[in-house]
Each structure stands twice: as structure tokens, then as C-alpha cells.
Amino acid sequence: MAALSRRKPAKIPPAKVDGNLAATGQGAPGDGDDGKEIDRGRPEWLRNFLTVSGPAGDVSRFREAARGTNGIPWPIDLEHEEMRLFAPMAGGGAEARMLARQLREIIAARHDRVLTRWNGPGLCPLDLHRLLPIPDHILQLGEEDPAAQDWLRSHWGTTQRLRAVRIREEGADRRLRRKAEIVYEFWSADWTPWQAILRLRREWPKLALSVQPKYDDG
To answer: Are 201 and 157 within 8 A, CB to CB?
Structure first.
């Protein structure tokens, strides 16, 4: 396994994995392997390429199993979110308070969509929560809970959902259609999701999963 090292911050496209599920501020603080605190609001993003290859039928089944909305039904404290939004503009008085309340309502509406539709058909081709679901008792803790962060690090290897996910390439043996390959491109917060890939290799033994992080991006 390649050594995990800190990288310079990289700029990525806005999170747009499903037009029906807007981002809801998901992400959480945690400590990296080097002991430095990871900033929840400004994580370092790493570009990755994951190649999945093997028997065409198994690749097709993996492709279907991996597709989702990329929404995670974490609980959210709306009072906290409103105060967090209001704090930096508190000097604006009543107008600032009204704006914070309006933003809270937008967050609440988006979060409601995540809660009701996260497990429906989606546009994200590689949804970790679909492939390796976060258990209900962990979800109930909330994303910022230390135990939830520990679970994400130990089972996914990254503490946020993948961003800007797309299928870069896919193909098959046009003569016999016995072999197929898909190359996924995605961005992960702070680390390549090594733990998720190791688990997927065990759960899909007929497939070869190879990941290539791009440490020089950004």
C-alpha cells in the first residue's frame, strides 16, 4: 500500500453529483494520520482514478451496485447551522439575522431531500454509502461525533463522501464480451479511500480494483 502523506490543497469543481441532492455541508473534522487537525470547512482534496476490471457480468453488477445519489442521511442541528451562519455577519443586525434564517431554511429543505431520497436512483456512479453503508447506529451519532469519524476512517479511509465523481472510461471485449473495465475519476477529502478499496476487493473477489492517486494535482 502506498504511504499516505499530506498534500498541498487542490481546487476541485463544486460538488455536483446529483442534480436532485444539493450539498448540505456534509463533512466533519478529524485528525489525519500525521496528527494534524483536518479543517472540516477546507479539507485538502485528492484526485483519484479507480480501475475496476474483470468478468463482464461482474463488472456490470458492480457498476449497478455502485450507482447512487451520494447522499448520506446524517442528522443535522439546524439551530447550530443558523448560529454558525449568523456569527460572521452579526454586525448586520436584523437584516443579517433574516439572511441567516433564510439560509437555514434552504439547508433544511436540501437536507429533507437527502433524508427522503438518498437511497433512490441517482446520478453518482460511485457512491460509497451505497457500496459500504454507514450503519444506522453510527448515522444516529451525527457526522461530527468522534465515533462516527473513527468509523469513516477505519471503513472508508476518508471522512467525507466522494466529490466530482464520473466514469472516465469503460469498455469490453467486443468479440466475446467476457472481460470489461471501468475507470472512475473522483476527488476524496484528505486521503485516498484505501480502506474502502480494500473492503471492496474482499467483497468482489472476481474483480481487480486498482487505484491511482494524483498527488501532484493542485
So the answer is: no
Judge contact between 158 and 151, C-beta under 8 A: no
Q: Which residues have C-beta within 8 Å of that of residue 50, sequence separation ≥ 6?
A: 126, 183, 184, 186, 197, 209, 210, 211, 212
Reported pTM: 0.69
Measured from the Cβ of residue 186, the count of other Cβ atoms closer than 10 Å reads 26
Task: Name every residue whose Cβ is closer than 8 Å to that of residue 118 and which is 6 or more positions away in sequence.
Answer: 21, 68, 69, 71, 72, 73, 129
Among 89-98, 139-148, 162-171, 195-204, the least confident range: 89-98
Helical packing angle, 93-117 and 78-86, nearest 10°: 140
CA–CA distances in Å: residue 158 to residues 4, 29, 63, 93: 12, 11, 21, 39
What distance in Å separates the CA atoms of residue 190 and residue 185, rounded to the nearest whole number? 16
